[in-house]
Design brief:
CATH class of the largest domain: Mainly Beta
CATH topology of the largest domain: Methylamine Dehydrogenase, Chain H
Number of helices: 0
Shape: globular
Number of domains: 2
CATH superfamily of the largest domain: YVTN repeat-like/Quinoprotein amine dehydrogenase
Radius of gyration: 21 Å
Strand content: over 45%
Largest sheet: 4 strands, antiparallel
Number of strands: 28
CATH architecture of the largest domain: 7 Propeller
Distance between the termini: 51 Å
Order of helices and strands: EEEEEEEEEEEEEEEEEEEEEEEEEEEE
Helix content: under 10%
Length: about 350
Amino acid sequence: MAASIEVGTTPHGLAITPDGSLVLVAGFGTNQVEAIDTGSNQLVWQAPVPQPHNLAITADGQTVYAASQKQDAPSLAIIDIPSGTLTGSVPLDHAPRALNVGPDGGEVFFTQAGVDSVQVLDRGSNQIVARIPTGASPHHPLFTPDGKVGLVVAQGPGELDLFDPVTYARTGSVKVGDMPHWIAASSDNQVAYVTNEKSNDVSVVDLGTMTVATTIPVGNAPRKIVLQPGAVPLANDHQMAPAPQAPAPQAPASVAAPGQGPGTAVSIAGFAFVPSTITVAAGQSITWTNTDPVAHTSTSDDRTSWDSGDLGPHASFSTTFAQPGTYAYHCTIHPFIRGTVIVK
């Protein structure tokens, strides 16, 4: 390791300008986007953005879009890179997740929590001009280097969905691993690599045959993946080893701590706790049930009062509140999901 650069608490996404001169950091915990000069490894500007999660830079290196996941006020923040100045904001109805600038530079393609489609934002008007249907819980959108194929992972069914970036039509899907998170595409436009967070592997997808050519075990919970510029697979098409057929490990149907006394319920639905604030009497229990297609947690902000661990789809967790007080909590997997328990 050559250097360590202090950027504050809970940094999320990174993006590098096309000329390689700046690394931009989404400072979720610091509520700002930060720019690091790659020559000096020093911060050169900080722009205020509430809870930024991921970033997308335009091809000319002049503008960055930041996915702001502020509770009750999600948006896409627009920042001028040379000056580090916030120049605009696009209000959204759901928290943005991952995003990329489209092949022609005129649009931003992004996903939202609880919305089963890719949103297409026209950069000129800052209006949503299309919604591309996907499998449940889409995350990272990407394009092949030639710009002809759009890719997005759908975490609920565990698939890679393909779409036409010009017509916005969905063109196919390939079953990958459990909880796919991120995509990288080879420079020859023939192969997509997909990280699978729950099955602990990478799916190597042949985009010509629309099949998984091989699956590579990589250890626990892989998320981000990148390819070196110009990289192409050493083996392609039918020379690749076949994907193993063993099923991915499944999340348990439920994880429950025993509750005592009369209980009440909170749903985890659409990437939100419903209701977000709940009041109970001392001695009552609360049961959280995950109705989303992906895993969540219910975890107290102090990390000691309670922690459900990962709750897969349809799983539940219960705990009893003995002491009066106000308890803030969140999902550790998706920290923009927040709630409050009031015990009287």
